[in-house]
Design brief:
about 475 residues, alpha+beta, 2 domains, 9-stranded antiparallel sheet, two-stranded antiparallel sheet, about 25% helix, about 20% strand
Amino acid sequence: MSPLRCLCLVAATLTGSACATEASSDLSDDRGVAPKADAILGTCLPEDCGGPAKDGEGFCDASCAGFGDCAADVNVSCGFPDCSIRDDGTTLGCDGGTCIDGVCSPSFAWGLNDVSVLFPTRPDDVPLLVGSVGTVDETKVVLLDPGLFQRLGKDVPFLTETPNRDKHYDKLRVTSFRLDPCVDGFDPHAADCTRSIRLVMQPIWPVGDAFDTFDASIHLFYELGEAEWTTFVSSLDGLRTRDLSSAPLQVHPVLLEEGMDSPFGRGLTDLIRRFATADRIARMTFMATGRSGNNWFWGGFDRMPNGDFETFEIPVLGHHEDSFTQHGRELEMPAVPTLVDFPVALLRDHTLDAMTPDEATAAVITLHEYENPRIINATNLPCAHCHLANETKFHALDRLGLDEPTGEPRYLLAELPDVDLSVTPPANNRGNNMHGFSYFGDIPTIGARVVHESAEVVHFLRKR
C-alpha cells in the first residue's frame, strides 16, 4: 500500500479531510478489510505505536494518534502532525530532526554551547537578561524567592561586603545557564538521576551608561521531572538556529552576534522563565566576596523534604563554609592557606619557581583530576579546589614554559571526536579570578571542569 493511501484511509475515517475524496473508491485494505476508526494501516511498527500491532501487516492501535512512518510525505495535507514524541522522549518522524508541537524543524547535533550558555553582558544586553523575577504571558513568575536569597547575610556571609550588600536581589541577572541530566551523579542514564537546569546569577548594577558586574555569584539548581525535562530539552532543541556542534565553549556565538533581543535570545529567555520557577529550586550555592576583594567564601543550601532550605556540609571539609584568601602570587602573600589535597606550591611564584618540571607536572596532573567529572564527582570536591584549579593550572604552565600533560587523568572524550574541548586561559590571571562559568567584571570566564561537564551532557543527549 502506498504512503498516500495509508494516510488517506486514516484521514477518511478519522477526520473526514479532503483525503477522503482521493481514497473514496477504496477504503479497504488490499485484503478487502475496512480499517477501523481507531486504527492506522501502513508501515508503522508496534514500537512506533506505543502498543501491540493489530496484526502482522500494519494495523496499529490508537496511540499512534493518526501518525505512522507511512505518513511522512503527506501528513500536512491530510491534517496530521509531522511528528510526535514517544513516552520515552524519542521522536517519531522528522528523520532525526526536532519535533515541536507536532511540527518538524531542522536539527543539529548537540554541542557545548547548546547545553551550556554564557550570556553576553554588553550594555544593550543586560536589561534583557533574566532576573530574579520576570513575566511569562503577562503573568509574573518568581525565579528566586527573596526569602531564600536573604539567607545570605544571616546564616552565611553576604554575597558582597559592599554598602549595597543587602540590596542585590533586584539587580541579580542570569549570566549563564546549563543543562544537567544527573545532579551529583556520574551516570545520567541511571534510574535515580535528578534532571535539572542550572542558572548562575550575579549582581549587575548600572553605572552611568554602563554596568558593573560584581565579583560574586549564586548558583541555582531547578529540579525537573522526566516529562518536564523532555519538554524542556525538546523546546530548547527547537530554538537552535545554527550548528554549534563542534565549537568550543564560549560566550554564546548567536547571542554575541545577534544580541539578547534576537529570536533565539527571546525564546531562550521565555523558556528559562517558564521552567526555572522558585518552587523547583532544589539547591542554591554561592560564591561571596569579602571586604578586601581578595577573599572568597563558598557554601550553599539544599531543600529538605519539608520544603525548608538548610545549609549543607562542604565535601571533604565537613563544615558549612569553604574559603580562600589571595593577596597575590608574590612573597608578600601570607602563609599558603591549608587546602586539603590541593597542590599549594603552585599558588605562590617563589614556591612554583623552585619546582622541578617533573614536580610541576605532577601537581598539574592533580588539577586534571579535579577537572575530570569522570574521576571526581562534584559531591567529593571542595568548592575552593574547583574554583582555583583553572587559573592555577594555566599560570603554572605559562610561568614555567611547560606543555600541558596529556593522557589520564586529563579529560578526553573519545566518543565525541568532533567536539572542541579547548579551554581559553582567563584574560586576567593574577590569581583572583575564581569564576567557573560567569563574569569577573567584564571578563567572561570558563573553567575546564565546566567544559568537561558540558561535554558529558552533549554525549548523553547525542545518545538519546
